[in-house]
Amino acid sequence: MRTVKFGIIGLGLMGREFGSAAARWCHLLEMNVGPEIVAICDTNDALFSWFRDHFPTIRLVTKNYQELLADGEVEAVYCAVPHNLHRQLYTDIISAGKHLLGEKPFGIDKPANDAIMEAIRRHARVFVRCTSHFPFFPAMQRLCRMIDEQAFGRIIEVNSGFLHSSDLNATKPINWKRIVEINGEYGCMGDLGMHPCHVPFKAGWYPRTVRAILSNLVRERPDKQGNMVPCDTWDNATLLCDAVDPGSGEPFPLTIKTQRIAPGETDTWYLEVKGMKACARWSSANARRLEVLEYTGGEQTWRRIDTGWEAAYQGITGGIFEFGFTDAVQQLWAAFLYEFHEGKPKSRFAACVTPEEVAYSHRLFTAALASHARGTVETV
């Protein structure tokens, strides 16, 4: 098995998830490539101990990311830092010749993303992808196969979203995701939006126009000292878009929702595709279940399919058992390393988000800001 030596910049929640996925790489079967974590970096040295305790392969521990990039043993980098740092760190990683899996949204705004895209163009040999775990759940893989097989016929409409309620509590202390200078003016779109865009963009369903309604529902929150401070990013966003199905050339409505304040939702991704021949819907609220309606005339009936562990990248888990978030994280990493090693993705929907797809999301979110401000339909 080929080993790719990784450095991690940003050791928070998702940095640890990558570490866990790498530590149990033996879970995956038929992979000819795997990760090895050899260097870690964070400005908070309190995060070092967990990695040191569990990964004896780590040689370099530093608070200076430039030191990590100068290490000749590091081939690739996973970078999970706040949005305002993306432009500098991502362009530096790429310019150092390190392959990159970066967290969305690949820049705090479109100018930052433009700079990252220019660095990618200048260093064409560097392999760069963006994270999103949405399509790797087995039920979603089945839905995606229906897209590949053109099972829906003419598309009537598509609805995609990412909802949670973590900010419903108005007394929750403010964090960086609620500060424009760190999170960006996109608000919840920048933080959550790549997830509901992932499958539609892979399907070629790119928005041509957008009418956006954005909401800032909690305008002040306490800081760590209990003082009330401005909370100035968008909590919720609803984007009504016009897209075209490349299979038929026909337009259809595409709705994309991102909400930090969605009562009753813990962490819900969903996708619904309605077509003239078939419809399908999936929600992570019941992650193993895919609902399908196939119309052949006569009575219309939704069929329920409960999927087991049948992931894109085969693992040791028996097919009757359930697939979870940590499995989706490992599948994302398998997709990154498979494409890096093989030179092409295993399939269209078993692949990471490309830089070009991320760049289109910036076009969409920038147009959405203008749409909300002007009350207009904007071209993407």
Description:
The protein is α/β, with parallel strands linked by helices and 380 residues long. It folds into 2 domains: 2-130, NAD(P)-binding Rossmann-like Domain (Rossmann fold), CATH 3.40.50; 135-312 and 353-379, Dihydrodipicolinate Reductase, domain 2 (2-Layer Sandwich), CATH 3.30.360. It has 11 helices and 17 strands. It has helices at 13-23, 48-54, 65-69, 86-95, 110-122, 138-148, 180-183, 188-192, 194-202, 325-342, 355-374, and strands at 2-9, 33-41, 60-62, 76-79, 99-102, 128-130, 155-163, 207-215, 220-222, 228-230, 236-244, 251-259, 268-275, 278-283, 289-294, 302-306, 378-379. The strands form 3 sheets. A 9-stranded mixed β-sheet has the order 16-15-14-13-7-12-11-8-17.
Strand arrangement, major sheet: 16-15-14-13-7-12-11-8-17
Count of helices? 11
Strand share of the residues?
A: 25-35%
Q: How far apart lie the N and C ends?
A: 43 Å
Q: Please identify which CATH superfamily of the largest domain we are dealing with.
A: Dihydrodipicolinate Reductase, domain 2
Mean pLDDT: 97
> Regarding CATH, which class of the largest domain?
Alpha Beta
* Secondary-structure class: alpha/beta
Task: Give the low-confidence spans.
Answer: none
Largest sheet: 9 strands, mixed
Overall 3D form? globular
Q: What's the number of structural domains?
A: 2
The CATH architecture classification of the largest domain is 2-Layer Sandwich
CATH topology of the largest domain: Dihydrodipicolinate Reductase, domain 2
| Residues in helix, % | 25-40%
Report the count of strand segments. 17
The run of helices and strands is: EHEHEHEHEHEHEHHHEEEEEEEEEHHE
Rg on CA atoms, Å: 21 Å
